[in-house]
Amino acid sequence: MYHHLPVMLKEVLEYLQPKSGGNFIDGTLGGASYTLALAAAVGPTGRILATDLDELALENARQKLTDLNLNNVVLARTNFKNIKEIVAAKFPATTKFQGIVLDLGLSSAQLEDETRGFSFQGERPLDMAFGDELKLTETIVNKYSLLDLTRIFREYGEERFAYQIAKKIVEVRRRETIKSTKDLVDIILSALPARFRASRLNPATRVFQALRMETNQELESLRAVLPLALDLLSPAGRLVIVSFHSGEDRIVKNFFRDHNRQELEILTKKPLGPSPEETNANPRARSAKLRAARRIQTRSPN
Ligand SMILES: C[S@@+](CC[C@H](N)C(=O)[O-])C[C@H]1O[C@@H](n2cnc3c(N)ncnc32)[C@H](O)[C@@H]1O
Fold it and tell me: Which residue's alpha carbon is nearest to atom 13 within ligand 1?
């Protein structure tokens, strides 16, 4: 059973304001909570396009849509950066959307999937791909240069011991291929000064996050999709992004700022976080940041 507790669903809907007959895009289907809520709100005359790279997310959504007898959702297994092609293929020409939402990162189901290596618990293959780009994480760990590993651990993981960990990886892989998440966790632990091994919440968290972001080229996909999403919005259409990483939030913030008053009106001066109640119920929501903007009505040529 696919399991993911949605983050900031109530706030997302408040900003998207879905109405009967509307068209919306959910670029990150995951456990389908946003998609199902939108599908219910727009009713049979509306359409939701939902994309995800993960076949398990699509399978789960197909099942739920059948159970709920909802026929207004178009599912596509793709990277959201291909959104224009998918819209062109599946919707009438010139279709515009009243809202587009992205809820970035990974789902709880992916974290718990024992066939993949998103979690540092247990012994799993070094595979952190959302889709099926198999072996990519293993290649990064075993082939990237010392410099590149250090850079991604620092930039994506904000890991203080980026260089020490990268150096240890390079040392170990000279003797043998690093194959499992457990091998990697052991290497990370051995690279840290003793007092940090015990004192940190989980010493592998940051490196795992960095490898996942590099495997899926997450910041690149986000940078690519924002201008496309802007193009696909109808006048007064809304763009809502929930991010979990400072690098992601910066990209969204800068994009909104660069288009402010020309094409977008920013609806969140500061990013919105989850309520204390939500954080208590779902600690994963803790680092969520929601930013929303509305497309400015473009004047007609006459
Ligand atoms: C946090 S979950 C979304 C949860 C969802 N909002 C819900 O209500 O259950 C993020 C999902 O986005 C997918 N994803 C991440 N980056 C993607 C990309 N560039 N293109 C398509 N899907 C992506 C992941 O595979 C994952 O299933």
Answer: 28
**Domain covering 9-109+218-295 in this structure, CATH number:** 3.40.50.150
The verdict on domain 134-215 having CATH code 3.40.30.120 is no
What are the extents of the domains in the chain? 9-109+218-295, 134-215
What is the 145 CA–ligand 1 centroid distance (Å)?
A: 29
Over the stretch 160-173, which tens digit does the pLDDT of each residue have? Answer: 999 999 999 999 99
Domains 9-109+218-295 and 134-215 share a fold: no
CA of 266 to the centre of ligand 1 (A): 24
**Token reading at 267:** 């609806």
pTM (2 d.p.): 0.95
